[in-house]
Amino acid sequence: MAAMSGGVDSAVAAARAVDAGHEVVGVHLALSRMPGTLRTGSRGCCTVEDSNDAWRACDVLGIPYYVWDFSERFKEEVVDDFVSEYAAGRTPNPCMRCNERIKFAALLEKAIALGFDAVCTGHYAKVITDAEGNPELHRAADWAKDQSYVLGVLTHEQLSHSMFPLADTPSKAEVRAEAESRGLSVANKPDSHDICFIPDGDTRGWLEERIEMTEGDIVDPEGNKMGTHPGANAFTVGQRRGLKLGTPAADGKPRFVLEIRPKENKVIVGPEALLAVDLLRGIKVSWAGLPIAEAGTGEEFDCMVQVRAHGDPVDARARVLIGEDGKPEMVASLLEPMRGVAPGQTMVVYQGTRVLGQATLDTARSTAWDPSAVS
């Protein structure tokens, strides 16, 4: 089964699966509850236009094409989760949730039930099988387009049924050239970006319609009031613009959001230097393939940590502990501070090119200041 987003990557991935001799069926996921939604430039995805583009690609490839309506599950698993996470003062990654719960849970589950062997997608990532036949997730050949980060939530079983035909492609330009040579109309279609269910890119305005906002205080790391805000939930760690502070900083330099406390309805701001964190703690730990030996022993292991899809990985020492709730937690000490990390983001852990697994950040802090000083 080829997951057809309507973009150039999924179209070429499906074409390569056909060339490899597989029996391929194209499926487009209808995720929007607004069927009249139209794509604007490179914003958004999963629109009527994308569905039509996916159909045209399947027609050129000579493979069957279906549209599956996953809009209800998408709303529950991705959109509602996004709102609830922001309401709790965290910064979620909806693309991770979509890959985890829709594209590689709901879709793969249905595909296997229907007798398919694997789901093929246009992600830039690689599945390598070890000597014992176990799948491992690795970075793609083109690190600039590598998407292994957003696939870090995949399990051993899911990787066993996943195909990424673009894994060894050296560049996106080559994919576009191949699409054009195959007569695929999406060859020069712009990449989608931003959050697909917020196509205008105004996340704050979108959230304000769904989360009750109450005016509260903006304070500095010592607890001094710097101004007021219309609602803490609409802010994100690292944010600089839109703070509208009434009291200027003593050094005249801009301030950034350091922490959000929705229960107290406070936004804590401070100098840019305090955005650098060196200690991360993640919950909801999962392993991409079989877990490493240290996962069960609590021993420290060397790794690299990445917290954004296109962020730079940072060397770290990590270990897995059992939390107060009896569930595993991953704690990582960064050898080099990372800037502007927020609870709710996903921490993906690598060794070399291999993705070991991931965890959802519950704590991201700097040893340079004590958050408990804010009362």
Fold and architecture overview:
- The chain is of the alpha+beta class.
- It folds into 3 domains: 2-181, HUPs (Rossmann fold); 212-270, Roll (SH3 type barrels); 274-373, Translation factors (Elongation Factor Tu (Ef-tu), domain 3).
- Helices cover 22% and strands 27% of the residues.
- It has helices at residues 8-19, 48-61, 71-87, 94-113, 156-160, 172-181, 203-208; strands at residues 2-3, 26-30, 65-69, 119-120, 125-129, 135-139, 162-163, 216-219, 225-229, 256-261, 266-270, 276-287, 301-306, 314-322, 328-339, 346-351, 354-365.
- The strands form 4 sheets. A 6-stranded antiparallel beta barrel has the order 12-15-14-13-16-17. Strands 9-8-11-10 form a 4-stranded mixed sheet, with no helix packed on it. Strands 1-2-3 form a 3-stranded parallel sheet.
- A hairpin with a 5-residue loop joins strand 8 (216-219) and strand 9.
- The longest helix has 20 residues, at 94-113.
How are the elements arranged and paired?
Layout: E1 2-3, H1 8-19, E2 26-30, H2 48-61, E3 65-69, H3 71-87, H4 94-113, E4 119-120, E5 125-129, E6 135-139, H5 156-160, E7 162-163, H6 172-181, H7 203-208, E8 216-219, E9 225-229, E10 256-261, E11 266-270, E12 276-287, E13 301-306, E14 314-322, E15 328-339, E16 346-351, E17 354-365
Parallel strand pairs: 1-2, 2-3, 4-7, 8-11
Antiparallel strand pairs: 5-6, 6-17, 8-9, 10-11, 12-15, 12-17, 13-14, 13-16, 14-15, 16-17
Helix pairs in contact: 1-2, 1-6, 3-4
Q: What is the count of structural domains?
A: 3
CATH fold group of the largest domain: Rossmann fold
- From the spread of the alpha carbons, the general shape counts as globular
Give me the number of helical elements: 7
Strand content: 25-35%
Query: At the first level of CATH, what is the class of the largest domain?
Result: Alpha Beta
Can you tell me the residue ranges where pLDDT is under 50 for at least 5 consecutive residues?
35-44
**SSE string, helices as H and strands as E:** EHEHEHHEEEHEHHEEEEEEEEEE
Major beta sheet summary? 6 strands, antiparallel, barrel
Q: Rounded to an integer, what's the Rg over CA atoms? A: 22 Å
The averaged pLDDT comes out at 87
- The overall strand count is 17
Quaternary structure of the protein = single chain
Main location: cytoplasm
Enzyme class: transferase
Organism: Paeniglutamicibacter cryotolerans
Active site: 98, 196
